[in-house]
Write a structure and sequence with these properties.
86 residues, alpha+beta, 2 domains, three-stranded antiparallel sheet, two-stranded parallel sheet, 3 helices, 5 strands, 31% helix, rod-shaped, binds zinc ion
Length: 86
């Protein structure tokens, strides 16, 4: 998946295909593409309690010695979801 600038794509298409029928079709196509929430591009994970204390990121397996459940992993940036340890 690659997020694009739909307005710029429309301008580019208008230059390449000046026929108004083609432009209407291209604009309709771009207008009907689903928008992407930038949060969906961020990896997801959850904290796993380490048996000797501290936490482990489920996404990158990085151990951190403290038990502060931050919203994101400081190593890989994964957004941490509420989930019981598993
Ligand atoms: Zn991580």
């Amino acid at each position: 998946m690659r997020p694009i600038d739909a307005d710029e794509a429309k301008r580019f298409a208008a230059e390449c295909w000046p026929n108004p029928v083609h432009r209407l079709a291209i604009d309709a196509l771009l207008d009907n593409c689903p928008a992407i929430d930038p949060k969906d591009l961020q990896p997801h994970g959850h904290w796993i309690e380490h048996p000797t204390g501290g936490l482990v990121c489920s996404h990158c397996d990085r151990y951190k010695p403290d038990e502060w459940r931050s919203m994101c992993c400081p190593n890989c940036g994964a957004r941490m979801e509420d989930k019981n340890d598993g």
